[in-house]
Specification:
MetI-like fold; single chain; about 260 residues; 13 helices; mainly alpha
């Protein structure tokens, strides 16, 4: 009993320390600004533009990422093929490689003959808004794949087998059995990747640049204001990012908990 009490006290102490650390960071931001500055910043044309651009690009990037990640994650989870471990490792690279490195790789690609052809004949990405979406997609897609793979791994294959015995095709089983069972995981992956896209900076600033009122997402706005020593405005924008992340996490918990009680 004593050992159990010591263990519980130890883990709760670590929990308390981490919570206090995060609260300390937020409180330090609160001490550096005031409500008037935050309100004025939120109503400025620059920040409203950054909020709008971040929401639009992150949403588009997340939709594309989910469309790609669902079949990719299912293929890795439920099928066997030659070189599977190699493919799985390659797809995980964006999780461990610096976003700046990913952005630089994209920038180099668009300086190759193929990339130049895409830029000149199809759509421009370098220092343009589509570049923001591409950079966000490159960073978040690996996260979406990894989250969805864990979801598909946790589904008992017997459910799909029962569906097949009822006469459903493999595609019908996927849409009518697997996806409904994976709903919580799909929601979690979509919300978390969207929130990650909102906060993406490294790849975005490398590929799309940091131009006010053009490619200025919320993280870029923080960078530009810090670069001009406008710390109060940067802190206000940080609060916007924190608010968006908090709302996303609350929605995630509400939707998943509601689903669990059905």
């Amino acid at each position: 009993m004593i050992g159990g009490g010591v263990f519980k006290a130890a883990i709760l102490s670590v929990l308390a320390l981490l919570t206090l650390f995060m609260c300390g960071l937020i409180l330090s931001l609160l001490a550096y600004t005031d409500l008037k500055t935050v309100s004025a910043t939120l109503l400025s044309d620059e920040v409203l533009f950054a909020i709008r651009l971040s929401l639009i690009t992150a949403t588009i990037a997340t939709l594309i990422s989910m469309i790609v990640a669902i079949p990719v994650a299912y293929a890795i989870s439920q099928t066997q093929f030659l070189g599977k471990s190699i493919v799985d490792t390659i797809l995980d690279l964006p999780i461990v490689v610096s976003p700046i490195a990913l952005g630089a790789a994209l920038l180099v690609f668009f300086n190759t003959p193929l990339g130049t052809g895409i830029e000149n004949r199809l759509i421009r990405f370098v220092f343009e808004v589509p570049g923001i979406i591409l950079a966000q997609f490159t960073v978040i897609n690996a996260l979406a794949v990894r989250l969805l793979k864990s979801t598909f791994d946790s589904i008992n294959p017997r459910y799909e087998q029962v569906g097949r015995t009822l006469g459903y095709s493999k595609m019908q089983v996927f849409y009518r059995v697997t996806l409904p069972l994976a709903r919580n995981g799909l929601i979690a992956a979509a919300v978390l990747t969207w929130a990650r896209a909102i906060g993406e900076f490294g790849a975005t600033v490398t590929l799309a640049g940091a131009m006010k009122m053009k490619t200025e997402t919320l993280p870029v706005a923080i960078f530009l204001n810090l670069a001009t020593a406008n710390v109060e405005k940067a802190v206000a924008v940080i609060f916007v990012l924190i608010a968006i992340a908090t709302i996303a996490l609350i929605i995630l918990r509400k939707m998943t908990s509601a689903r669990e009680h059905i």
